[in-house]
DNA sequence: ATGTCTTTGTGAACGCGTGCACAAAGATTG
DNA sequence: CAATCTTTGTGCACGCGTTCACAAAGACAT
């Protein structure tokens, strides 16, 4: 089966497609809500609506986990909650360390929904000596100097980076060296990590820019005949577009 | 219900693939860094490395914007910064409103990188009367009662929701009614919006769960033999498949 | 038991995204 | 001006993800 290891370490998901894995938490959330309302079973149609996806997609997703439904009835809510939780590894405890306790780091530390699903904030780490010992969300902030020890002692395998961009890579390296193999990065930085380490990023700026793109598009639809493409002035082969960068214009610093 | 031919507003992207749009901010960030270092030109290979993508992908992405490169040389940094900025709609000002000024909302309001790229925090809105007038990040928090007026007066078309999950849909509805057509949702809620309104979500919990999945898989590679704790019990009709042997969930019979 | 009705599970078609590989474009050198 | 070298732009093939559509599985009624 091993079709050679041609630099393809990403798609090694245990049979379950990555896209499906990304939706399981969504289903789990919807199922948990149903569970709290003591709803015994749910059809793929209902659950799909609650999760905001296509019902066929949901059924196919579940088919990767096995056949847990009953034709003519639907899925047993409690049973499915357990199966998905187990598949996602939420039946065990995941100690998490947050590095960079500033605006965002503190907000995350204070976030209640964190611990609600197997994730536990095991440590808060910051480079500012003045913060050492200060309690944030009931947890004393520890200094970066002890990062390695803190990670090891707590068995942390998931790290959250909320430092300024400039420090992100360095912090990442230290986390990895200490044994962290999964990183959630909030800093707008492209992190470089060794194979075997997973990195996911949350980038507010990118999200806003994507929204702006579509927003501009919508605005342009109304005034299609408007001055849509006046500025370009493509540098044609004839005219060299060397350093005389004609009209760079606006530049956000 | 069944064969309801629902419209497909998603693939309305004017020629530019959605995946490409999502990467443009990444390129822009790398290019801005180069620009600040006064680097005149850059090759697709260098830029791709800086942005953390494949060079062929980058070239194809740029090809959707037009042919802005020079063979044998590369791309003019300033020129490309301008082109991408224009394509993303960042040459104009985007007033943004944040609703729900708690831990997260306040952190976002204080976030400097926000305004650095055409986005301006035009208003902070919260339902707590006690917060009205309180300055956060130098901006006075306004009450939800005035939401409609605030959105209109400031020409806000992008709204950020950082309220508790239970209030998200309601807030969303009010924002849309007031004229907002793009929403960035931080609440773990599936928002329902009319056609023409874009919603993007940032979900910390989902990201962590995806990481946990892969983390568990990595751990499982070493030792496949493990003893799961005490799974719920529930007898399945037939002994369907049992690779993991344990059946869970209580049947409320 | 048998029939009907509901809903799952999935085969198959399709479209999108990715990455390879290379011809062409243009810079550069002699 | 011709030869050479560098790097773009893209045709093409492939794999993943999505969706449709339907046979089969099972619940439920008679
Ligand atoms: N605040 C937001 O809403 C927001 C939004 C999107 C992205 N971000 C990104 O998240 C990161 C944090 O943002 P913030 O607003 O909380 O910044 P902040 O300045 O408030 O906090 C950064 C914290 O990191 C600490 N720090 C600096 N270097 C460190 C190091 N080497 N090791 C450990 N800790 C270190 C600082 O002492 C500080 O406490 C930034 O990269 C920012 O771009 C923030
Ligand atoms: N804090 C985090 O790190 C974090 C992480 C992931 C997700 N979230 C989500 O973000 C949201 C906010 O989290 P938080 O920690 O800031 O919560 P919070 O309780 O600190 O803040 C919520 C704020 O929303 C306000 N609010 C409540 N109902 C409102 C309404 N109808 N209209 C306007 N404002 C209203 C409250 O007054 C409060 O100020 C939650 O949905 C949470 O699940 C937070």
UniProtKB/TrEMBL annotation, chains A, B:
<dbReference type="GO" id="GO:0045892">
    <property type="term" value="P:negative regulation of DNA-templated transcription"/>
</dbReference>
<dbReference type="InterPro" id="IPR036388">
    <property type="entry name" value="WH-like_DNA-bd_sf"/>
</dbReference>
<dbReference type="GO" id="GO:0051775">
    <property type="term" value="P:response to redox state"/>
</dbReference>
<dbReference type="InterPro" id="IPR036390">
    <property type="entry name" value="WH_DNA-bd_sf"/>
</dbReference>
<dbReference type="GO" id="GO:0003700">
    <property type="term" value="F:DNA-binding transcription factor activity"/>
</dbReference>
<keyword id="KW-0520">NAD</keyword>
<dbReference type="Pfam" id="PF02629">
    <property type="entry name" value="CoA_binding"/>
</dbReference>
<dbReference type="GO" id="GO:0003677">
    <property type="term" value="F:DNA binding"/>
</dbReference>
<dbReference type="InterPro" id="IPR003781">
    <property type="entry name" value="CoA-bd"/>
</dbReference>
<comment type="similarity">
    <text>Belongs to the transcriptional regulatory Rex family.</text>
</comment>
<dbReference type="Pfam" id="PF06971">
    <property type="entry name" value="Put_DNA-bind_N"/>
</dbReference>
<dbReference type="InterPro" id="IPR009718">
    <property type="entry name" value="Rex_DNA-bd_C_dom"/>
</dbReference>
<comment type="subunit">
    <text>Homodimer.</text>
</comment>
<dbReference type="InterPro" id="IPR036291">
    <property type="entry name" value="NAD(P)-bd_dom_sf"/>
</dbReference>
<dbReference type="GO" id="GO:0005737">
    <property type="term" value="C:cytoplasm"/>
</dbReference>
<dbReference type="InterPro" id="IPR022876">
    <property type="entry name" value="Tscrpt_rep_Rex"/>
</dbReference>
<keyword id="KW-0963">Cytoplasm</keyword>
<feature type="region of interest" description="Disordered">
    <location>
        <begin position="219"/>
        <end position="253"/>
    </location>
</feature>
<keyword id="KW-0805">Transcription regulation</keyword>
<comment type="function">
    <text>Modulates transcription in response to changes in cellular NADH/NAD(+) redox state.</text>
</comment>
<protein>
    <recommendedName>
        <fullName>Redox-sensing transcriptional repressor Rex</fullName>
    </recommendedName>
</protein>
<feature type="domain" description="CoA-binding">
    <location>
        <begin position="89"/>
        <end position="190"/>
    </location>
</feature>
<dbReference type="InterPro" id="IPR058236">
    <property type="entry name" value="Rex_actinobacterial-type"/>
</dbReference>
<keyword id="KW-0238">DNA-binding</keyword>
<feature type="DNA-binding region" description="H-T-H motif">
    <location>
        <begin position="26"/>
        <end position="65"/>
    </location>
</feature>
<keyword id="KW-0678">Repressor</keyword>
<keyword id="KW-0804">Transcription</keyword>
<feature type="binding site">
    <location>
        <begin position="100"/>
        <end position="105"/>
    </location>
    <ligand>
        <name>NAD(+)</name>
    </ligand>
</feature>
């Amino acid at each position: 089966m091993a079709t050679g290891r041609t630099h393809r370490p990403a798609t090694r998901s245990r049979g379950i497609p990555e896209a499906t894995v990304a939706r399981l938490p969504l289903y789990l959330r919807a199922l948990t809500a149903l569970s709290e309302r003591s709803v015994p079973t749910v059809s793929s149609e209902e659950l799909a609506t609650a999760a905001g996806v296509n019902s066929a997609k949901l059924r196919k997703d579940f088919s990767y986990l096995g056949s847990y439904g009953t034709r003519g009835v639907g899925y047993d809510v409690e049973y499915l909650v357990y199966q998905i939780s187990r598949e996602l590894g939420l039946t065990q405890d995941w100690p998490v360390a947050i590095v960079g306790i500033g605006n965002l780091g503190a907000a995350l530390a204070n976030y209640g929904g964190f611990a609600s699903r197997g994730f536990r904030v095991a440590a808060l780490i910051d480079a500012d000596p003045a913060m050492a010992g200060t309690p944030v969300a009931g947890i004393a902030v520890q200094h970066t100097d002890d990062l390695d020890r803190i990670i090891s002692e707590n068995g942390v395998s998931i790290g959250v980076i909320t430092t300024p961009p400039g420090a992100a890579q360095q912090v990442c390296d230290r986390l990895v060296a200490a044994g962290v193999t999964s990183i959630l990065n909030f800093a707008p930085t492209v992190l470089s990590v060794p194979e075997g380490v997973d990195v996911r990023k949350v980038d507010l700026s990118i999200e806003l820019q994507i929204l702006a793109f579509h927003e501009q598009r919508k605005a342009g639809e109304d005034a299609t005949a408007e001055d849509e493409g006046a500025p370009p002035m493509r540098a044609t082969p004839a005219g060299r577009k060397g350093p005389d960068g004609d009209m760079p214009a606006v530049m956000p610093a």
